[in-house]
Design a protein that fits this description.
The chain is of the alpha/beta class. Helix content is 33%, strand content 20%.
Length: 235
Amino acid sequence: MPVPLQTMRVYDVSPDDYFHHPAGDSDRVATHLLKMTGLDRKENLRILEVGSGRGNLAQALFQLGHQVTGLEPSPAFFRKAAELAGPEFRQETYEETKVEGQFDLVLFVAVFEHFPDLEKVLSKSFCLLRPGGKMCIVNVPNAFYWKTRLINFGFKALLRPFVIHCSPLHPPFHFYEFSKKSLAGMLQKAGFKVERIWVETGHTYRYSWMYRWASFWVQKLGHGEIIRTVAIKPE
């Protein structure tokens, strides 16, 4: 899997061209994420969103009554986010951020798999969280995704020396994919207590009977596209 040596080149594009989902979904996503972490009944949380993109999710969390800081290294994405009122946006990488204080929630949404040094990222998160604070990692690629395994079986049957891992097959490439065991092990090694970890379909907010049926089976069999986890810093 070719990985660009200068990852930021991937994000030197129009934010509106890069993101294909509507910004209007952010209110629903924000509410869902807080409920997922068990913090939906809390007031005035201090939240750090790592990789805030256009800033829509950070703004939605702010409008729910929380103090939100968004980190976004891409100049194009940061300029777009800075147009929004409410959250504090900083054009910084997570590894080099100078943000101070302790947070109630550190949030990674489809971002965690793009860091080359995950130990450094987890150590940073542990330091920035208050005791009892939570980290939510959403939508990392599942190594046991059924489509990936099916394609790899096809390559093997054709005696081809290839495997498809670390999807997608287009920029921005993922540095890592995970199993529930490997992700939980990394979190525990960094000092976190894993509160919840599960496999999902990838179609998170489509609450239809088909989604509920698919979600039940991918969680039961562990072959869904993505993994989510909520971890807590012990008090």
